[in-house]
Design goal:
The chain is of the alpha/beta class and about 290 residues long. The protein has a single domain, classed as Vaccinia Virus protein VP39 (Rossmann fold). About 45% of the residues lie in helices and about 20% in strands. Strands 5-4-3-6-7-9-8 form a 7-stranded mixed β-sheet, with helices on both faces. Strands 1-2 form a two-stranded antiparallel sheet. Helix 4 packs across helix 5. It is globular, with a radius of gyration of 19 Å. Bound molecules: S-adenosylmethionine. S-adenosylmethionine binds next to helix 2 and helix 5. It is a peripheral membrane protein. One of its GO terms (molecular function) is 2-methoxy-6-polyprenyl-1,4-benzoquinol methyltransferase activity. It is an enzyme of class 2 (transferase).
Amino acid sequence: MVGIWRSSLRQTGRLSRQFGTSRAVRDDQMTHFGFKTVPQDQKESLVRGVFSSVASKYDVMNDVMSLGIHRLWKKHLIEKLDCGMRPNSSDPLHFLDVAGGTGDIAFGLLDHAKQKYGDNESTMVVADINPEMLAEGAKRCLSTSYANSPRIQFLEQNGEKLDAIEDNSKDVYTIAFGIRNFTNIQAGLDTAYRVLKPGGIFACLEFSQVDNQALDYIYQTYSFSLLPLMGQLIANDRDSYQYLVESIQRFPNQETFANMIRKAGFYVPGKGYENLTFGVAAIHIGVKL
Ligand SMILES: C[S@@+](CC[C@H](N)C(=O)[O-])C[C@H]1O[C@@H](n2cnc3c(N)ncnc32)[C@H](O)[C@@H]1O
């Protein structure tokens, strides 16, 4: 473990020196892009570039790299939320899936609402900064029962602002494996609070910190040695997968992220999160009171 961390830290230092020395850009105008330090105003286009590059292979790579486990985590999130217009209600729910990419969470939430509650009315907006990822989602939508339905909309939007989404307009805000890519995560959380109705639910599924040292060692070894290599062999794109691994390392731990959700104004029930697979991923919940 020590070996891996040392070499990661060495790399961090080297890359920071490579990218962080522009005297024209002040430190408070810099942010991280994986282990690199870059000007804040460049991060959005760098992230966009990563997802444009992986979009066409994103779903298959997700299955290969997580050994299919991401499907179990997403299913768990959807069942935990248990959303859907109840049979005795006449108020459809308005879902927003931010950084929705190819639509796993969006289709899953609508399917759950339909299968469990016979809900054929609730609406879904899939918002993502990347048009190629949205195009993959819209293509997948054509082979679902929501094809050409006005109930589902794909919108190009930066989750930090969500300019096209009105205040207090959504019942459920979900984001899966997206928020760690934001330049300003707190701005994303503040925006989630803005667009939710009072009583609305914020739910985030994201990679997190493993709570067991031995498992963390195996996980880090797998992440840093195998994932970029798999990216190279399967998608011919080592750099994008290197970024994805590094961005996981840079994301705040469970407690810190729960505090950021509180800071945005949400009520956080209990400790605020549930670890999945020993903390490899975690679900954070907030309620707008
Ligand atoms: C790892 S993918 C996750 C996709 C999907 N939610 C899933 O779980 O399969 C991350 C997504 O976040 C999107 N993204 C990154 N930064 C964003 C931002 N600032 N606003 C909205 N979407 C963003 C990317 O374009 C990409 O589609």
